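Postdoc handover notes: sequence design on the structure in folder B. Input tokens:
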């Protein structure tokens, strides 16, 4: 009887240790995310939590604001930027791990109008009644720089140079078009992927440099293994499927 009791107690102790190890293995991953990627990040985070039992805590802001916070010592484990420059600077400044920096998504550009039937292709840019054309600031926003490349490539830059309305971000650019302050604009596909309102032309990626968004493991990561697990999940087919629904292409 004593032997039996001892075996039962031993089995119970083993199960308790396994349960404790499982709880210990689950960790929190703190991720700084560019605001333009907020919605897909939330969906990716939920899928990651289901797959791994880790918990993800997101902080959303502009890429520039997040970089300033990271440089000031903000407690983040992973940085998902809207460009490649800030993660590269994080690595150069010793804030990021050079062996764990990669492109997690590529943004897509679209020529968009809230007017149904107006945009059927690039030929709409040849019309004389378009008025102002909205783009993101090409000096600070990758989508704006890409829009300029498209206009130059299509031979339309001179036509619109004096009629460009520059948003401080791609979010403001979309608002210019959505509110009618500009009849036409180059916006992110992710901003219009969820509805069929208006009219749009998805710009071929061959007309501009890739709009790459990089991720990097931060040197100050509290739980490196959990953070790496999240970064690995960004390369998972489940993440690729989520990216597609929001108008992003995988990093590749």
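Designed sequence:
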């Amino acid at each position: 009887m004593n032997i039996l009791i001892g075996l039962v107690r031993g089995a119970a102790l083993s199960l308790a240790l396994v349960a404790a190890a499982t709880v210990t293995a689950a960790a929190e991953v703190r991720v700084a995310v560019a605001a333009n990627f907020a919605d897909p990040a939330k969906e990716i985070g939920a899928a990651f939590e289901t797959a791994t039992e880790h918990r993800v805590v997101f902080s959303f802001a502009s890429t520039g604001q997040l970089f300033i916070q990271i440089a000031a010592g903000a407690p983040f484990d992973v940085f998902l930027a809207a460009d490649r420059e800030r993660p590269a600077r994080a690595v150069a400044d010793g804030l990021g791990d050079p062996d764990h920096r990669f492109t997690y998504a590529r943004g897509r550009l679209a020529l968009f109008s809230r007017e149904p039937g107006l945009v059927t292709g690039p030929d709409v840019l040849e019309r004389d009644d378009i008025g102002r054309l909205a783009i993101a600031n090409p000096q600070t926003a990758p989508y704006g720089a890409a829009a300029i490349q498209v206009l130059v490539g299509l031979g339309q830059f001179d036509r619109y140079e004096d009629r460009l309305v520059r948003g401080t971000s791609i979010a403001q650019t979309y608002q210019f078009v959505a509110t009618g302050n500009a009849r036409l604009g180059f916006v992110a596909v992710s901003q219009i992927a969820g509805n069929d309102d208006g009219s749009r032309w998805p710009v071929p990626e061959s007309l501009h440099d890739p709009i790459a968004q990089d991720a990097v493991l931060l040197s100050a990561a509290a739980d490196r293994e959990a953070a790496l697990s999240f970064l690995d999940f960004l390369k998972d087919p489940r993440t690729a499927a989520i990216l597609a629904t929001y108008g992003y292409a995988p990093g590749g």
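Context for whoever picks this up: The chain has two domains: 2-106+212-250, 109-202. Don't rerun without checking with the PI first.
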